[in-house]
Amino acid sequence: YQRRVHGGTEHDMWPGLRVTTPQRDSACPLTLTVVLYHVVAGGVPSAADVKACIAEMELLYQSCNWSGKLKDAPLHTTPLTVAHMAGIIQKVTTQPYAPSSGFVKDADTFPH
After folding, report:
1. Count of other CB atoms within 10 angstroms of residue 53
2. What was the pLDDT predicted at 101?
3. Residue 102: which residues within 8 A CB-CB, separation 6 or more?
4. Which CA distances in Å does 108 have to 42, 102, 103, 104, 111?
5. Residue 57: is its pLDDT beyond 70?
6. Which of these, 58, 53, 16, lies nearest to 38 by C-alpha position?
């Protein structure tokens, strides 16, 4: 199912790897997050910079084996169940959100 709880730092208690020859189940969906950073001279992108960024992302999308809107994706149809909610409630209860304790050092300074 496609629900995520992004709170807390602990995912689970892992006792160690038991499977020595793992194989991906192709029937299960795969979620991948890709972050692209495009740095431009002077900090302000030109029209050409924006077009180059868009072209790079379009190539990335074309390299995937599926194309379309997320709502039409073949494996995004499972409803949120009571069992899913129970797991979310347990995670939020046992691992409540704790904001970071400070500020990012030199957040307003671009590295040289």
Report:
1. 14
2. 65
3. none
4. 15, 15, 11, 9, 10
5. yes
6. 53
